Amino acid sequence: MNSYPENFKKLIESLEKLPSIGRKSAIRLAYFLAFEDKFSAINLAHNIEECVQDLQVCEECFGVSDSYICDICNDDSRNNGELCIVANAKDIFLLEDSGEFSGKYFVISDIKDTNIKQLEIKITNNNIKEIIFALTPSLGSDGIMLFLEDKLSHLGITFSKIAQGIPTGVSLENVDQLSLIRSLQARIKV
Ligand SMILES: [Zn+2]
Where in this chain does the entry annotate a coiled-coil region (predicted)? Predict the structure, then answer.
């Protein structure tokens, strides 16, 4: 890369640090931004700067927000008694895009007492009746679910988790053993 113009080299290095961007993609993107679509490049830089400055963690659900409390937490029409627990704030976007969930969320990034206290407050204040765990299937997730069910059992709520099994369009030979076992356990009548 010594023969590259200094700023172009820096741009490639920045892009290479992004998730799922390899060296070839970084060069292609850098060239596109620097030469082929300068307007998009300036716009992108501006949008990144605004997001970095404006976005924060919602104080109530720990999701992504542009204010102290996020729009979902503030939306009374979503008080349907359901609370979806996710492990990462960005999972909320995936669930929102699916359009299948209309309750509230809570991000449980790590199991600390302070976080559980806030989860209890969220459950009480929002009159939550059902907790839905939307966690990536793993033994660690099973541990988190058992732990939370135990900690929250006194609140008289029900617990469920998203179904697991064989993803659509994936052949059985490419499915890991845990998913295969879970899909058998969660089989349904046809
Ligand atoms: Zn929120």
Answer: none
